[in-house]
Specification:
Elements: H1 2-20, H2 34-55, E1 62-63, H3 65-87, H4 91-121, H5 130-158, H6 168-180, E2 187-188, H7 199-210, H8 230-235, H9 237-245, E3 258-264, H10 271-286, E4 293-297, H11 311-324, E5 331-337, E6 340-341, E7 344-345, H12 359-368, E8 374-379, H13 387-390, E9 395-399, H14 418-426, H15 434-449, E10 461-464, H16 466-493
């Protein structure tokens, strides 16, 4: 039995190789047993898992039971088809299902080899132009086209005389239920995009594009408006902001310091709140902002403990930070992470219509605080639209996406958005230079987005003022001492038993 299984597997692989090399294939293939079909499907699943692991980024790997469920559903459909076709005494059609499985594996292997080759040759080093990306996307579409051509060849060899294009009807009938199954990776990590290229994801994207969701107005649901207890939360904001900024340490004479304000103004997904808290921890440890960092969060979980990330609270917090800074030497790092549109960073909590953040009111808040040296990091869709209004000689500004592009990774359950993960969780753990960190993050994001060929890449943006470069270079010279001080603070707050 084992020998026969080995022989049949060799026949399957030989047939797949002949299909791939456009050589003649048998029109009357040998009938395969169910055990052979299961072996082929298992091999296909293993190849798929290996590919998911490759494109996941290699960090934060997690098993996804939904991905396995989707794979099992595909296998069940294939096996059901084989059983049905066997009862109709048509072994040729069962071979078509095997051809589909082997062709899918061949395509996955081809994409994995191409992906690994691109990583090895450094194509994701951030220096490629837009047309280079289009070339690679064209190659990916070419792989898809090749697969469909091979499937047509397989169907044509099995079904003669059925219309002008023999085999097309067979391939369409067999592919349809497989395409309709939602696809998710079996293994995912920090680089995995959950919104995959199955028909359901594409449909959602098309609907969102054609009929974008409109903000809910108060009058549409008067019974639930405003959210219970939220008015009291608004009245408590001066107290909460005062508590958050009242303990800010003043700048030390003759020493340049970083001050951090991190804001998560949208409560739709918990990833934003997680991100600002992680960024605060990172800056406290690596950039010496302990005692000089403030977070503002819109989340039902922090209504009573953390100030809201409204534009009003951002302005108040910036004024208090400005008072604590040496405005000539110190540098403000302002990080905002949220949803966005062109010229807007979304502000929302429990559906309450707070004022949105715009380039104009953010610039006014910074100017009112009289903060000179600025590092502004905006992680949101279309955040590049903020750069023209906020850039200047004393400002370094980074945006997660171009003005006409969306950014990715904002979903419940994630710890980081794509941009936040690449910049903070990877690049700034290795670099203290913001420009070098941005270059590394940009290359990493390109690699993560590369194979999502149904999306436009986000194209992160950076603008570096001529004067802020000198200030940041001086800061980097003192970074080692600040990190040493931060380490001492940690050891003192956690003494050994």
């Amino acid at each position: 039995m084992q020998r026969r299984l080995s022989v049949e597997l060799r026949l399957v692989l030989r047939r797949a190789l002949r299909l791939l090399t456009f050589r003649r294939i048998a029109t009357h293939p040998v009938t395969l047993r169910p055990i052979t079909v299961i072996a082929v499907l298992f091999l296909t699943g293993c190849i798929g898992v290996a590919y998911d692991t490759l494109v996941s980024g290699g960090t934060g790997l997690t098993f996804n039971e939904f991905g396995i469920t989707a794979a099992l559903a595909s296998w069940a459909l294939m096996l059901a088809g084989i059983v049905l076709l066997r009862r109709k005494s048509n072994p040729r059609l069962s071979r078509a299902l095997i051809d589909i499985a082997t062709m899918g594996s061949a395509a996955t292997i081809a994409m994995a080899i191409a992906y690994a080759a691109l990583l090895a040759t450094g194509v994701f080093d951030g220096r490629q132009s837009d047309w280079t990306g289009w070339v690679w996307h064209g190659l990916a579409y070419g792989v898809m086209g090749l697969v469909f051509l091979l499937l047509w060849r397989a169907g044509r060899s099995l079904w003669w005389g059925e219309g002008r294009f023999p085999g097309c009807r067979l391939v369409a009938v067999v592919l349809l239920p497989l395409v309709l199954i939602p696809h998710q990776p079996a293994i995912y990590g920090n680089g995995t995009d959950w919104s995959r290229s199955d028909v359901w994801a594409l449909s959602r994207q098309a609907i969102a594009y054609l009929a974008p969701e409109q903000p809910t107005q108060a009058g549409e649901n008067a019974a639930a408006w405003p959210p219970a207890g939220f008015e009291a939360t608004l009245y408590r904001q001066p107290e909460l902001v005062s508590a958050a900024t009242g303990q800010l340490e003043r700048s030390s004479p003759g020493v340049s310091r970083y001050f951090l304000l991190a804001a998560a103004p949208n409560a739709d997904q918990d990833v934003f709140a997680k991100e600002v808290q992680s960024v605060r921890t990172l800056f406290d440890e690596r950039f010496g902002t302990r005692g000089r960092s403030v977070v503002l969060i819109n989340s039902p979980a922090t209504l009573d403990t953390v100030p809201l990330a409204s534009i009003t609270n951002i302005g108040v917090a910036l004024r208090e930070i400005g008072k604590a800074m040496d405005r000539e030497r110190d540098v403000l790092v302002l990080f905002v992470t949220s949803h966005g549109a062109k010229g807007i960073v979304s502000v929302d909590i429990l559906g309450y219509p707070l004022n949105q953040i715009t380039p104009e009111n953010l610039a006014a808040a910074l100017d009112d605080a009289r903060i000179k040296n600025r590092v502004l990091i905006i992680s949101a869709c279309h955040s590049g639209s903020f750069i023209p209004r906020l850039q200047g000689p004393n400002t370094l500004i980074m945006a997660a996406a171009a003005a006409d592009r969306t950014s990715f990774g904002c979903a419940n359950g994630r710890d980081w958005t794509y941009f936040g993960d690449a910049l903070f969780n990877h690049a700034l753990r290795e670099e203290t230079s913001f420009t070098k960190a941005f270059a590394k993050a940009d290359a990493l994001i390109k690699s993560w987005e590369f194979w999502h060929i149904f999306r436009k890449p986000s194209q992160p943006q950076i603008s570096v003022g001529s004067d802020i470069v000198k200030v940041l270079e001086a800061m980097n010279g003192e970074a080692h001492n600040q990190r040493a001080e931060a380490a001492i603070d940690i050891s003192e707050s956690n003494p050994a038993p």
